[in-house]
Amino acid sequence: MSSHSCTPQPSATRSAPPRRSAPPPLSASLEQGDPHEREGTPTRVILLTGPSGSGKTSLAMRSGLPVLRLDDFYKEGTDPTLPQLPDGGGADWDAPLSWDSQAAVAAIAALCRTGRTDVPVYDIAASARVGASGLDLGGAPLFIAEGVFAADVIAECRAAGLLADALCLRGRPTTTFRRRLARDLREGRKSAPYLVRRGLRLLRNERSIVARHTALGAHACAKPEALARISAARAADGAGAAVRS
User: Fold this and answer.
1) Residue 233 burial class via C-beta count within 10 angstroms: exposed 0-12, middle 13-18, buried 19 and up
2) Distance between the two ends of the chain, CA-based, in angstroms?
3) Which of 23, 33, 47, 219 has the fewest CB atoms lying closer than 10 Å?
4) What is the DSSP string of 218-230?
């Protein structure tokens, strides 16, 4: 799991809206009309994925684009559908089924359609949603949705015409292991023994995790190339807007 802190990103504003019912599926989100539907330049998303601790959150912040934090769509610890570790060590938070993909995709669709949406606030240490907040793109025609399961929604976003790019951060597994363990211990995300066991398991599996993401359609690359592709997407979007105007 990557970071779940809810600090506002530089290019987006968040406010506390009233709670709402669960978001509809993406197909329903795209079919329903909206009185505030954006006109002109279509908004698109860059999906940013990679192993836990690979630096997705810091890179997204460096991009200067609004950011939707997909890890805030984890299921709660009391959810009976949570997958379990085979050794009986508790919930498997690294399995895609620990994440509410439908709600995440509905939020992406709403941002692309209207430029705003409501998102949950998730506390990793408590394994629970502790509130909700509003995310507004501030008129930006491009935003990043980052999280360890972002690759799982590539096909759906591409089919809906929402996808600008899909990137998977790739680095040295030992570096990722050290960065992830230091962060998780510092933030007290889970107990130390759990974090060490999880970290070693992810270290062994990192190359297969990246391979899975690329098989789902993400382009694996290091941070410099990822930033370059994000810049290229921004430039292409700006050129398209100039042509349309």
Assistant:
1) buried
2) 41
3) 33
4) PEEE-HHHHHHHH
- Per residue in 10-59, pLDDT (tens digit) is 444 444 444 444 444 444 444 444 434 445 558 999 999 999 999 999 99
- The string of pLDDT tens digits covering residues 57-89 is 999 999 999 999 999 999 999 999 999 998 888
Beta strand extents in 112-242 (DSSP E only): 116-123, 128-136, 142-146, 163-169, 219-221
Contact 67, 164 (CB under 8 A): no
* 191 HSE (CA, 13 A, CB side): 5
142-146 and 67-69 beta bridge pairing: parallel
Structure-block tokens of residue 180: 């992830």
Annotate 153-178 with b (16+ C-beta within 10 A) or e (fewer).
Answer: bbebbeebebbbbbbbbbbebeebbe
- Token pair, residue 63, equals 């991009």
| CA dist list (Å): 85 to 60, 94, 98, 188 | 30, 10, 11, 21
Q: What DSSP state is assigned to residue 90?
A: S
Q: What is the largest CA-CA distance in the chain?
A: 59
Ramachandran region of residue 118, left (φ > 0), alpha (ψ -120 to 50) or beta? Answer: beta
pTM: 0.80
pLDDT digits (tens, 9 = 90+) for 117-142: 999 999 988 999 999 999 999 999 99
Determine contact, residues 6/72, Cβ cutoff 8 Å: yes
Q: How many CB atoms lie within 10 A of CB 96?
A: 13
